[in-house]
């Protein structure tokens, strides 16, 4: 709804020239990444999933180079690696050895494979968005509207095919108060997506992936500073890596623009 209203009042801008099917590809890879990531939680714990998804900028960069012919300076690779490594060190949580020992090797392997599939889909989404930016005039709210439109269609077919839509209706009938939570979540998500797609359209998917990867890091770091929680040495090293990577990326990015 927010996107429709936004599009209504932007008639004076140049039209989005991106083919509609490209948004469909983005929707498929986006949903694939989300599905594989959530499904992996059946075999790996949540800290492992968070740790795996913290590597998102790497496939976005690699597949952007391979599929979208995007070129980055060497220092960019170094900065992204520093940021990812820093977030991984900061977010890593040692698993309970007893619990880990009870999980079979196959289960761990399947969970990790699903995480790799999720990261690959993230990279494919970034590569398609990079091609869209390079070859067409892209508007952030058109991108948001069309990708969500495709996603709604795909999910609607999936829900009807699997019968989960009827389970959802039954659940809402038993717990009607959940509808308010769903509405609140949807509004917050829509507002957040505005900024995500504006970042993708104006600065590229790699920058967006770095922002979304480091947001949890800054949230936890903020709670540490505000509430006096303690960090171990490994986490402080991670903090140093992230800030070093972000600082170098900002410095060399500005230096390149001046040249």
Q: Can you put this structure into words, describing what you see?
A:
The structure is a single chain. This protein has 259 residues and is mostly helical. It contains twelve helices and no strands. Helix 4 runs antiparallel to helix 11, helix 5 (74-91) runs antiparallel to helix 12 (233-258) and helix 10 (178-203) crosses helix 11 (205-227). The radius of gyration is 20 Å and the shape is globular.
The tally of strands reads 0
Content-based structural category: mainly alpha
Q: What general form does the structure show?
A: globular
Q: Mean pLDDT across all residues, rounded?
A: 86
Order of helices and strands: HHHHHHHHHHHH
Helix content: over 70%
Low-confidence stretches: 98-107
Number of helices: 12
Sheet having the most strands: none
The amount of beta strand, in percent, is under 5%
Termini separation (Å)? 42 Å
Radius of gyration: 20 Å
Helices and strands, with pairings:
Layout: H1 2-8, H2 20-39, H3 46-53, H4 57-67, H5 74-91, H6 97-102, H7 105-135, H8 140-162, H9 164-174, H10 178-203, H11 205-227, H12 233-258
Pfam families: UAA (PF08449)
Subcellular location: Endoplasmic reticulum membrane
Membrane topology: Multi-pass membrane protein
Q: What are the salient characteristics of this protein?
A:
mainly alpha, 259 residues, single chain
Short description:
This protein is mostly helical and 259 residues long.
């Amino acid at each position: 709804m927010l996107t429709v209203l936004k599009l209504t009042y932007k008639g004076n801008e140049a039209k989005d020239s991106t083919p509609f099917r490209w948004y469909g590809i983005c929707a498929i890879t986006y949903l694939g990444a989300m599905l594989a990531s959530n499904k992996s939680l059946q075999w790996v714990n949540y800290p492992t999933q968070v740790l795996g998804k913290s590597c998102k900028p790497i496939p976005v960069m690699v597949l952007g180079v391979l599929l979208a012919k995007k070129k980055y300076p060497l220092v960019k690779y170094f900065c992204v690696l520093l940021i990812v490594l820093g977030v991984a060190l900061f977010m890593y949580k040692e698993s309970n050895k007893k619990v880990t020992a009870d999980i079979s090797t196959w289960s761990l392997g399947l969970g990790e494979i699903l995480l790799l599939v999720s990261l690959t889909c993230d990279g494919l989404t970034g590569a398609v968005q990079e091609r869209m930016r390079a070859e067409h005039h892209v508007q952030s709210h058109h991108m948001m509207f069309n990708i969500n439109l495709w996603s709604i269609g795909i999910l609607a077919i999936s829900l009807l095919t699997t019968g989960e839509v009827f389970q959802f209706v039954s659940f809402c009938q038993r717990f009607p108060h959940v509808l308010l939570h769903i509405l609140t979540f949807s509004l917050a998500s829509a507002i957040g997506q505005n900024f995500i797609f504006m970042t993708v359209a104006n600065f590229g998917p790699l920058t967006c992936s770095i922002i979304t990867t480091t947001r949890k890091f800054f949230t936890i770091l903020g709670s540490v500073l505000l509430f006096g929680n303690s960090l171990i040495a490994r986490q402080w090293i991670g903090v140093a890596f992230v800030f070093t990577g972000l600082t170098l990326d900002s410095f060399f990015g500005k230096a390149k623009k001046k040249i």
